């Protein structure tokens, strides 16, 4: 029985800047589709624009993919390194008659278009060299190699997302494959690379849909099998317009810097334009099992920061403590902040289960963990200092004495605080505010009893003594 062709997908960014969130989603879709089927996910750096392509931008793409947790098979392929191969294929097409030499100059092409505009005709360039006798070729003159595209009929893209998309061939020109300096055009190089890399599925933004109509003509001319195309809708801002910097963060590194865990970003990006029933929250194993091209929507997806925060909070809450600690440390390193000390980690561990239930991002969690990360003496901020009047300082002194011999359990800590408050004719809430000031120096903190348990007897009493005298 014939075996099914293994799935091979690719992500092919141009290294001219940071990794855009739209590019990150495209990479994720390709990764999920390939990995979920035991296939290969390849990375190609489309660096033929030598003026704009930089090593720094290439590294930024690699760093972004690594942070997002998307691994690729083999070494990244440089499109520029394949220039000789691209030229070879163009000359094969020339020899086979599916391409031709065009000696038209830039001035002649512009004159053709001006005349067409004046006459109200299509400005699509019709080269006079398409069917010229080779004996008429000007000796030694520069030329480009153009595709001999069909002039009649239709080119149909059978797209896994968009359905059948039809283009009239009369609206597609004989595009240039090889420039007069012998360098390939992007449109030609992409097809050769996809064929040589064995790509079976091209999953990319729907802004490439028109490109596909021209590219399949090269596949067909070479007698190569077409890959399955899946053109996915772009990401829009909340206002329904194409995503741009005015909508907020557009670079993947900005989301990493804001403290969204990578696994939350994978979940969120997967749902931007793809769905599996009503499932909004899922882990990697579920995404790999569920993801298919039929679940991709045709309509543009909209970026929604509130939904991203919800997804992020869900993932943080269900992380095991050691994974979360590793995420926090990686976040601090990425933002050039000091790593957590052993002492800080020891204080964090017992409070993590309480902190992660409420935090939406890693910085929000670190903000709540502030009490565990600071050292004595604690300096209350302005709001916390306002809670420290003579009455509250007196209660802290009484509580310090009451806690000297308490067994360090939540019940006994609560009872001690309640007894001190009642002795002063007040409710438990009245002692909580100065307690927060003493233990964390802030007014918004985790439960005072969670903080006391995390800090331990000696550190808690020391902080209370510092403040209450």
TrEMBL record:
Its main location: cytoplasm. A motif ('HIGH' region) lies at residues 13-23. Keywords: Aminoacyl-tRNA synthetase, ATP-binding, Cytoplasm, Ligase, Nucleotide-binding, Protein biosynthesis. A motif ('KMSKS' region) lies at residues 242-246. Residues 7-309 form the Glutamyl/glutaminyl-tRNA synthetase class Ib catalytic domain. Belongs to the class-I aminoacyl-tRNA synthetase family. Glutamate--tRNA ligase type 1 subfamily. This is Glutamate--tRNA ligase. It comes from Paracoccus pacificus.
């Amino acid at each position: 029985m014939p075996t099914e062709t293994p799935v091979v997908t690719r992500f092919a960014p141009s290294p001219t800047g940071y990794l855009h969130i739209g590019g990150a989603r495209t990479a994720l879709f390709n990764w999920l589709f390939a990995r979920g089927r035991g296939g290969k996910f390849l990375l190609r750096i489309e660096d033929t624009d030598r003026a704009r392509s930089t090593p720094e931008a290439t590294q930024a793409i690699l760093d972004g993919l690594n942070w997002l947790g998307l691994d690729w098979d083999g070494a990244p392929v440089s499109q520029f390194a394949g220039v000789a191969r691209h030229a070879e294929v163009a000359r094969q097409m020339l020899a086979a008659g599916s391409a031709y030499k065009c000696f038209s100059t830039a001035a002649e092409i512009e004159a053709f278009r001006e005349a067409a505009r004046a006459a109200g005709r299509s400005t699509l360039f019709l080269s006079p060299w398409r069917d010229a006798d080779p004996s008429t070729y000007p000796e030694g003159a520069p030329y480009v190699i153009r595709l001999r595209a069909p002039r009649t009929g239709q080119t149909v893209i059978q797209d896994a997302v968009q359905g059948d998309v039809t283009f009239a061939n009369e609206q597609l020109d004989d595009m240039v494959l090889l420039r007069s300096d012998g360098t390939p055009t992007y449109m030609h190089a992409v097809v050769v690379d996809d064929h040589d890399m064995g790509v079976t599925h091209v999953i990319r933004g729907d802004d490439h849909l028109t490109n596909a109509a021209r590219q399949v003509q090269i596949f067909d001319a070479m007698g190569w099998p077409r890959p399955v195309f899946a053109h996915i809708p772009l990401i829009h801002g909340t206002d329904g317009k194409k995503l741009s910097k005015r909508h907020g963060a557009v670079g993947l590194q900005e989301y990493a810097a804001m403290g969204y865990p990578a696994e939350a970003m994978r979940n969120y990006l997967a749902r931007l334009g793809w769905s599996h029933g009503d499932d909004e929250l899922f882990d990697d194993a579920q995404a790999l099992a569920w993801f298919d091209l039929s679940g991709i929507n045709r309509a543009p997806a909209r970026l929604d920061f509130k939904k991203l925060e919800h997804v992020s909070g869900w993932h943080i809450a269900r992380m095991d403590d050691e994974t979360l600690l590793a995420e926090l440390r990686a976040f601090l390193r990425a933002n050039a902040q000091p790593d957590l000390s052993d002492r800080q980690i020891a204080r964090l561990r017992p409070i993590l289960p309480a902190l992660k239930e409420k935090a939406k991002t890693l910085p929000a969690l670190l903000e709540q963990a502030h009490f565990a990360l600071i050292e004595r003496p604690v300096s209350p901020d302005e709001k916390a200092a306002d809670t420290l009047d003579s009455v509250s300082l007196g209660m802290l002194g009484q509580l310090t004495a009451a806690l000297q011999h308490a067994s360090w359990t939540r019940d006994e800590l609560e009872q001690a605080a309640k007894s001190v408050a009642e002795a002063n004719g007040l409710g438990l809430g009245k002692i909580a505010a100065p307690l927060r000031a003493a233990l964390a120096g802030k007014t918004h903190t985790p439960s005072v009893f969670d903080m006391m348990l995390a800090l331990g007897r000696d550190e808690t009493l020391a902080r209370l003594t510092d403040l209450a005298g």
